Structures are given as C-alpha cells and as structure tokens.
Amino acid sequence: MAKERMLQFVTVNREMPEKRPATLRSQDFHEIYRDFAAQKAAEQASRCSQCGVPYCQSHCPLHNNIPDWLRMTAEGRLQEAYEISQATNTFPEICGRICPQDRLCEGNCVIEQSGHGTVTIGSVEKYITDTAWENGWVKPVKPAVERSESVAIIGAGPGGLAAADMLRRKGFQVTVYDRYDRAGGLLTYGIPGFKLEKPVVMQRVEQLEASGVNFVMNCKVGEDLSFDAIRGQHDAVLIATGVYKMRDVGGPGVGQKGIVQALDYLTVSNRKSFGDEVEAYDNGDLNAAGKRVVVIGGGDTAMDCVRTAIRQGATSVKCLYRRDKANMPGSQRETQNAEEEGVEFVWLTAPKAFTGNGAVEGVMVQRMRLGAPDATGRQTPEIIEGADYVEPADLVITALGFEPEELPTLWGVPELAVTRWGTIKADFRTHATSLPGVFAAGDIVRGASLVVWAIRDGREAADAIMDYLAQPASVAAE
Ligand SMILES: Cc1cc2nc3c(=O)[nH]c(=O)nc-3n(C[C@H](O)[C@H](O)[C@H](O)COP(=O)(O)OP(=O)(O)OC[C@H]3O[C@@H](n4cnc5c(N)ncnc54)[C@H](O)[C@@H]3O)c2cc1C
Ligand code: SF4
Q1: Looking at residue 173, what is its pLDDT?
Q2: Closest-lying ligand to the alpha carbon of 397?
Q3: Number of H helices, E strands in the chain
C-alpha cells in the first residue's frame, strides 16, 4: 500500500504537477515516504535467511550483529533492533548511508552469493537508526559515575568522535580539538551532502556536546596549541587527525588557474551547503556551474567530485583514469551512479600537460594500455606513443589520493614513530604509539581508508585508553 502511494506521489509530482491534489503536499510526502521506507525495510529484513554462517557479520569491520537486527526489523521490533545495532556501531545511520556495502557486508550476503540479490543491509541499518532518532530513542550519554581523568582527542572525525563517545559513556572527561570550525572531519567537509546529509552528522555532534564532550574548534594543533601543551593538560591523548596531504599532478602548465585539488573543491561545496559565505565558490573559482569539467583519478574521491560537478550544473563532466573500469579503485556502485547521472569516463587515459595561458583551457591527454602485471599482480598502465589529444576544460579537478602530514616535524615531537609511508606507528590492537599515554586511530594510522574502520579504531583505542588509565601511575608512565 505504502509503495503504491509513494509511486502515485512521485508520478503525479513529476508528470502532472498541476494535477497534484492539494492533499499531496510535502508533509504528506514525508509520511508516505516513512511508510514506504518502513515497508521496504521490513521486506528486505525478512529476506534474510538467518543462514547461520553470517559472512555479512564477519565482513563488517564492526562485526555488527546483522542477522539479529534484521530479524527484529522483520518482526517490527524496531527499538530492539536499534539497541542491538548501536551496541557495536557508534554511528549506524552514517555507516548505513556511506559504507561501500558491496565490498563489505552486502557483498558477502549468502543470498547475494547464490545469485538472488543481497539483502540491502545498509538501508535497513539506516532506517532503524533514523527511526530511533525520530522516536527519541537516541539519548545523550549520562555516565553513572564521573571520573577525574581527562583525555584529549585531536581530530573530530569519525575516529575521534567514536572514541569520545565510548570514553564519555564511562565518565571520562573528554576534550576534542579540531582545526575546523565544525566537527565531523571528512563526514562534514569531505563526503558530499547527496551521499551523507549534513544534519545527520550535526545531530551526532550536538548529542556528544549534550553528553558533556568538550569541543575546542578552530584550534590547529602544532600552530594554535602545541602538542606538548595538550599532553601536559590531559592524562592521555588520542591522535585521530586523518590524512590530508593531497598527491599532486605533474606536467607542463600545471600551476594555472582552474586546476584545483579535490578536497578544496569538495570542502567549498560542503561549506556552501551549510549556508556559509564562500568567496571561492561565489567568484566561480571552485564552482563547476557552466563549465567543462575534467576530473583526474579513479577512486571514491574522484566519484564524489564528478557527481558534485553534475549537481552544480557543469556543461560536461569527464573523468580520466589510467586503467580500465575493471581495475578502478572506486566502488563500482558509485561509478554506475555517476554514469547514470551523465558523467563520461575516459578509461585508459592520463594527463600529460595542461594547455592555457594562465587559466586552464584543456588537458593534453595520453592514451594508455594495460601491460604486464606488477609485484602485486595488478597490470601496469603503459603509454601508447603518438596517441595524445587535447580534452577541452575550464575546470580540472585532481583526485589522486592522500598522504599523511609529517606530524613529528609539524608538532616538534621526533620521538613519535611513523611508518615508511608517514602514517603513525601504532599497535594494531591497543593503538598505543611510541609515546607513553598517546594513542592513534583512523586514517592517520591506516592511510586513507573508510569511515567504518575509523569508527572501529576509535572504539578500540577508547578501550585501550581506559585500560591505560586504570593502571597505577608508575606502570602507565613506563
Ligand atoms: C571525498 C571523500 C569521500 C569519502 N567517501 C567515503 C565514503 O563514502 N565512505 C567511507 O566509508 N569513507 C569515505 N571516505 C573516507 C573517510 O571519510 C575517512 O576514511 C574517514 O573520515 C577517516 O576518519 P578519521 O577520523 O581518521 O579522519 P578525518 O575524518 O579526516 O578527521 C580528521 C580530523 O582531524 C582534524 N585535524 C587534522 N589535523 C589537525 C590538527 N593539526 N589540529 C587539529 N585538528 C586536526 C581535521 O580537521 C579533521 O576534522 C571519503 C574520503 C574522502 C576524502
Ligand atoms: S557498518 Fe557498514 S559494513 Fe557494517 S553492517 Fe553497517 S553498512 Fe554493513
């Protein structure tokens, strides 16, 4: 029934807006949509065969108890479903929206493996927690006992916030420091709003504030406040600063106006969606409207850029990637979405140079082919000589991946050990670094990864910090 009403609403709105009955206004839409979502969630949840070999669960980095919350949803016991779901995941509604489920839980659903299409686990997870918020089941934390020990968390992304939540539940005094004006890290300023609506992130931040987490924003550690000062003020520190150094594109003509980096472009777009005044957007520098856009890269960040450019009203959006579709690092689902929205993928191509006279006018593109496999078994792209051409462009967005910033140098702590990739060296279980009382979690340890892994790391690090603070001071200082 809900499905029929939903279809009626969508059809009337799209095809005959003048005939839209007065009763079908937007508040009706929310009601109809809610009924429809409830019906869909129950339908999907009841498809779970309760197979007894939950590969979905073992392939979820948080080992969410998926079969149990699917069963509760199928039986209409949504509050119980929510309780089970939130026991292992700090932000289930966020993961439900943006986890690459095709590579994680859903990709390993036995129904999918037997060719009948996966249970849409992520959508059900999102539905359960959205319903929990609507019904007031998600409450600020009220610790049974307040503890005196204080923990500093540097970085308000999903890793830092997951740790803050866990520590606060146990009554620790938590202060989160971040260089941005809003918390959420890449949830707020990286991932576009059409994948993750910003109020969904902000309600979590507000809930943490209401739980007593102290946020110190616009504070860049290493510049506004030294790392040593933070260590001196708190009993333990968690570094969860993510990775932000973008890999640069090379070649003649590279420094011209109109060649921009993906994260700058996405951050500005996200700021605009908050209603901020953003000069670089308003003056057109970081705005794709009316432009021929070329995005360079084949990962998820590139997909976010092409899809944002389409939404901003670009006249054309092309994505250059040096391998083929089968070898693309980004999610196949995202690529398909982008194709359906009008993005043109130009496989087996790489930028050689940029044309223009101060402002970019085109990308000199060289064609590639896949050669022999490298040590990892992946075929190496090789240049096809003499096959170059110029792709006209008014805006070129480079999305070639991220590297960690050099924290030991930037923060003046050479004793903070890093790996040869520049990520922080931390114990894989306890997340302890080379400095006593200092832990690290999320992308700054793993390199560019996923939200769900940052949440897992943050939760594990919080547990380890609690253990550390429970030790006698003499042992902890060792
Ligand atoms: C464009 C884009 C799209 C993505 N899409 C997805 C997706 O769809 N699904 C998914 O699972 N993952 C996605 N990811 C990856 C995901 O966002 C990250 O893996 C995740 O956010 C890492 O969490 P984190 O807490 O480690 O770091 P971050 O989210 O990066 O947060 C780190 C925080 O630390 C702060 N910080 C850094 N240095 C300092 C300092 N010196 N002082 C104070 N604060 C500091 C930063 O301001 C930031 O707020 C995407 C990434 C990008 C770039
Ligand atoms: S957290 Fe991510 S991987 Fe785990 S069940 Fe939810 S959507 Fe799937």
Answers
A1: 98
A2: 1
A3: 20, 16
Write the residue with the smallest CA distance to atom 3 of ligand 2.
60
Contact yes or no for 192/97 (Cβ under 8 A): no
Question: Which residues on adjacent β-strands are paired with residue 397?
Answer: 260, 295
Look at ligand 1, atom 17, and give the residue with the nearest C-alpha: 186
62 CB near ligand 2 (under 6 Å): yes
| pTM of the complete model beyond 0.85 | yes
The residues near 113 (Cβ < 8 Å, ≥ 6 apart) are: 55
What is the DSSP secondary-structure string of 125-165? HHHHHHHHHHTT-------SS--S-EEEEE--SHHHHHHHH
Residue 452 identity (one-letter amino acid): V
Among 241, 295, 397, 452, say which to mutate for ligand 1: greatest number of ligand atoms within 8 Å of CB. Answer: 241
Q: Are 160 and 131 within 8 A, CB to CB?
A: no
Alpha helix positions (H), 298-447: 300-312, 332-341, 407-410, 443-446
C-alpha torsion angle, residues 87, 90, 92, 94 (rounded to 10): 180
Q: What are the tens digits of pLDDT across the range 380-438?
A: 899 999 999 999 999 999 999 999 999 999 999 999 999 999 999 999 999 999 999 99
CA of 451 to the centre of ligand 1 (A): 8
DSSP line for 68-103: HHHHHHHTT-HHHHHHHHHHH-S-HHHHHHHS-GGG
For residue 288, the 8-state DSSP code is: -
Using CA atoms, how far apart are residues 447 and 313, in angstroms rounded to an integer? 33
Q: Which ligand is nearest to the CA of 122?
A: 2
Instruction: Report the DSSP beta bridge partners of residue 347.
Output: 321
User: Which tens digits make up the pLDDT trace of 454-467?
Assistant: 999 999 999 999 99
Ligand 1 binding site (Cβ under 6 Å of any ligand atom): 98-99, 154-160, 177-180, 185-186, 190-191, 195, 220-222, 240-242, 266, 300-301, 304, 442-443, 449-452, 454
C-alpha 102 to ligand 1 mean position (Å): 21
